[in-house]
């Protein structure tokens, strides 16, 4: 006979079991938090999992990495409070992956004047955040910055975003761990020119972005015979105009020695406030590199890309008469095919700098002509227009009247079908020198020459096909300019453009890990337009004008078919998830029913 527990003993046993289970859960959770970092990211882009590139960068830490997080403790905005919690969780996870080689210190600059002054000395300042609480709108200044210290080096992150934190953090640690910083030279238009030149937009932001991780040096006096320093690993030539032949020679010899080169071509500059060409000039400015780039297989075409399929809605200036002889510039919204946003379809998916890009914007871009390639040189179009783009001549004035722009688009499309044009190309290999017959003599201001582009030659040695190198040519320089203030005209140096710019620099400096890190940022997912897709599948385009009544009736019939097909696809996409869930529930119910019936006598 089996002894049965009394009711009191059973109750006591139940309470004891529950207490033991709770203790096991609490202790196990604490041990797991301190010693076990196991996470599984089920998101499509794996955005919540630490990337292998970040793990490799943290694995190179040999000494302590100190992270001083300047976070506000009292945050009233619910959205910012969630962002802070996620940032703290990310920091804790990275600290665990660093295996004891990373320490985190949290300080609140709002609670201490000393901490506030310390943060500001590193460029870490508060930002005004507004939030809605019931019927009341509350404004608060919030700190979300960090300072990284490693072996006497420092890197400041002024304001952190949970979505881009891993990229910014990994990039900063990568720069601190490296023994030698890549040296980037800048030649051509100055990043921060004088006041009169700044009206066209500066390159100040691009240079500051580079200076965070690279040693940036201005290069000049190439025309006078000063060679590009051997310390420079990569040279950026920004908007070259009428370069002296000696400057072209020094750039050529830099590439011959294995130096990497980025050329940003812009043969026509536009005043953003008036839309007028510089000096009203109708001619295309020669770069001084035209012959060299043609010999290498990537000369710019003296025209602009007109791409109505990828046109961008952007801010454009319009001059208004205020009376009394005063005129002011105001910003209006314009859709111009001369200012385009390139989606994923326009990027090469094989080379690292463009493999994971989502979009980039270009203003008045010039197509790069596919000239004959010299032996031993490979050419890859990095960025292209849509398949329905056209080339249009460079005019003296860029129109901002939407009606005239649309009329020009119809006129261009009536002339025939469009095609893809290269907006940026990458050249790789051993490049021939166009100066094998002799090096140009340096420019001498006291000696007059018949033609500055064809000076006398010297007997110095000229390198040709001496070393492997990479040259990237862009048919636009405006895409890395700062937005023009105060109207913020044109897309210019957008987030996508910044990512493209840094990707190209990192690729040429062999930092593929940083390119991998940038691919971790959220991808924009455009909503599927079933109607537009069905129309295009039937050859219907909004800018196509029927030539006859029969073609008009045919298009109307095809449009009706497209609408029906789009409606069917919409219902299908809505019903499939619902039916799938219903089938799953019914399946579980059927299994449970069969199991229960199977256990009965």
Gyration radius, to the nearest Å? 31 Å
| Widest β-sheet, arrangement of strands | 8-7-9-10-20-17-15
Mean pLDDT: 83
Beta strand %: 15-25%
Number of helices: 15
Oligomer: single chain
Class derived from helix and strand content: alpha/beta
The counted number of beta strands is 20
Q: Could you say how many structural domains there are in total?
A: 3
What is the molecular shape?
Answer: globular
Helix content: 25-40%
Low-confidence stretches: none
Major sheet summary line:
7 strands, mixed
Distance between the termini: 26 Å
Summarize the structure.
The chain is of the alpha/beta class and 601 residues long. It is built from 15 helices and 20 strands. 34% of the residues lie in helices and 21% in strands.
């Amino acid at each position: 006979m089996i002894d049965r527990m009394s009711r009191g003993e059973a109750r006591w046993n139940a309470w004891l079991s529950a207490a033991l289970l709770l203790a096991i859960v609490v202790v196990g959770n604490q041990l797991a938090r301190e010693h076990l970092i196991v996470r599984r990211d089920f998101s499509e882009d794996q955005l919540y999992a630490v990337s292998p590139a970040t793990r490799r960068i943290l694995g190179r830490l040999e000494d302590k990495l100190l992270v001083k997080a300047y976070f506000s403790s009292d945050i009233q905005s619910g959205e910012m409070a969630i962002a802070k919690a996620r940032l703290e969780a990310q920091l804790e996870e990275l600290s665990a992956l660093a295996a004891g080689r990373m320490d985190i210190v949290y300080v609140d600059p709002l609670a201490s004047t000393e901490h506030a002054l310390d943060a500001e000395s590193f460029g870490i300042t508060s930002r005004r955040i507004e939030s809605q609480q019931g019927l009341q709108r509350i404004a608060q200044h919030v700190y979300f910055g960090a300072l990284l210290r490693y072996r006497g080096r420092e890197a400041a992150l002024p304001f952190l975003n949970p979505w881009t934190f891993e990229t910014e953090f990994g990039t900063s640690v990568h720069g601190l761990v490296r023994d030698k910083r890549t040296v980037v030279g800048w030649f051509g238009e100055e990043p921060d020119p004088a006041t009169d030149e700044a009206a066209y937009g500066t390159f100040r932001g691009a240079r500051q972005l580079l200076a965070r991780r690279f040693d940036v040096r201005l290069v000049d006096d190439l025309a006078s015979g000063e060679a590009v320093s051997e310390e420079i690993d990569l040279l950026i030539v920004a908007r070259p105009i009428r370069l002296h032949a000696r400057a072209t020679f020094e750039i050529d010899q830099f590439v011959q020695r294995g130096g990497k080169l980025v050329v940003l071509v812009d043969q026509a500059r536009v005043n953003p406030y008036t839309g007028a060409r510089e000096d009203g000039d109708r001619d295309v400015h020669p770069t001084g590199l035209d012959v060299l780039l043609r010999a290498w297989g990537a000369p710019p075409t003296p025209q602009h890309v007109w791409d109505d399929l990828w046109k961008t809605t952007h801010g454009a200036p319009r001059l208004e008469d205020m009376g009394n002889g005063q005129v002011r510039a105001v910003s209006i919204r314009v859709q111009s095919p001369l200012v385009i946003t390139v989606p994923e379809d326009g990027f090469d998916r094989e080379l690292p700098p463009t493999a994971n890009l989502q979009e980039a914007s270009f203003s008045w871009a010039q197509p790069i002509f596919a000239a004959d390639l010299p032996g031993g040189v490979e050419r890859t179009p990095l960025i292209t227009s849509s398949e329905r783009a056209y080339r249009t001549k460079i005019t003296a004035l860029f129109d901002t009247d939407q009606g005239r722009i649309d009329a020009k688009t119809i006129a261009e499309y009536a002339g025939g079908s469009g095609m893809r044009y290269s907006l940026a190309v990458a050249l790789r290999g051993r490049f021939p020198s166009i100066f094998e017959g002799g090096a140009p003599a340096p420019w001498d201001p006291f000696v007059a020459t018949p033609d500055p582009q064809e000076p006398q030659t010297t007997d110095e040695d000229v390198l040709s096909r001496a070393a492997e190198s990479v040259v990237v040519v862009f048919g636009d320089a405006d895409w890395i300019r700062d937005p023009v203030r105060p109207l913020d005209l044109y897309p210019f140096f957008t987030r996508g453009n910044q990512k493209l710019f840094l990707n190209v620099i990192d690729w040429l400096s062999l930092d593929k890990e940083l390119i991998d890190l940038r691919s971790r940022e959220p991808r924009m997912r455009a909503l599927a337009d079933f109607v537009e897709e069905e129309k295009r599948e039937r050859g219907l385009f909004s800018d196509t004008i029927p030539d006859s009544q029969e073609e008009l009736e045919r298009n109307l019939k095809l449009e009706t078919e497209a609408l029906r097909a789009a409606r069917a696809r919409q219902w299908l996409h809505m019903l499939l998830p619902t039916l799938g869930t219903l089938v799953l529930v019914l399946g579980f119910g059927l299994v449970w029913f069969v199991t229960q019936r199977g256990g009965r006598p």
